[in-house]
Amino acid sequence: MIKIVDYGMGNLRSVQKAFEKLGAQAAICDDPADLADASKLVLPGVGAFRDAIRALREQGLDRPVLDHIAADKPFLGICLGLQLLFDYSDEQGQWQGLKVIPGKVVRFDPEPNLKIPHMGWNRLDVAGRPKLFEGIHIDAHFYFVHSYYVVPEDEAVVAARTEHGVRFVSAVSRGNLFATQFHPEKSQRVGLKLLRNFAAL
User: Fold this and answer.
1) What is the CATH classification number for the domain harbouring 107?
2) Which of 10, 41, 97, 121 has CB atoms 3.0–4.6 Å from 141's, for a disulfide?
3) Burial of 88 (0-12, 13-18, 19+ CB in 10 A)
4) Three-class secondary structure of residue 135 per DSSP
5) 97 pLDDT exceeds 90?
């Protein structure tokens, strides 16, 4: 079963409903013991990095997430769930992340005519053909809402980039770990296709 990590900071029900629409069983879980037997794990999130990482650790949800990833079982991070995988974030100070992927989380630099947060539909430039993007058109657009983006140290994990003032990393992939800056659950048909690919892993 797909388990969705509930640490109090995610659009959990919309993610669950998207999987249910595909016929995939998905349960929202806030108990670390319930996450241990997950065949697939989803870490969504909206809000501030500081509050999210604090909530994960205080609720003891960081350890089952790390164990799941270490076992190379299918994992999907969404938006803040991508950022939490990195070493640290510069949002509202400097906050240590889960340290799964070496790198940092930084804010878009203010520029004339550059809207922050980056909100709305934007195109991906997919690197290679990660399993998550199978059957998705090369010009597909996904829905974004964020003011910060990830900067991995290792280019090998980059699955997609997107243009918004800079060419930022909008998806990562390593083994059975996948994470996206965009919201597949808000990206209509193309987002459902991506979630179907994840459910089929």
Assistant:
1) 3.40.50.880
2) 121
3) middle
4) coil
5) yes
Q: Note the residue count of the chain.
A: 201
Q: DSSP assignment, residue 108? A: P
Residues annotated as catalytic are: 79, 183, 185
**By the 8 A CB rule, do 42 and 65 touch?**
no
Please give the span between the terminal C-alpha atoms of the chain, in angstroms, as a whole number.
Answer: 12
Q: Number of folded domains in the chain?
A: 1
Q: Is the peptide bond before 64 cis (omega within 30 degrees of 0)?
A: no
Query: What's the pTM?
Result: 0.96
pLDDT digits (tens, 9 = 90+) for 129-186: 788 999 998 778 999 999 999 999 999 999 999 999 999 999 999 999 999 999 999 9
- Average the pLDDT over 99-115 and give the result: 95
Provide the residue range defining the domain that includes 109.
2-199
Tokens of 57: 């650790």
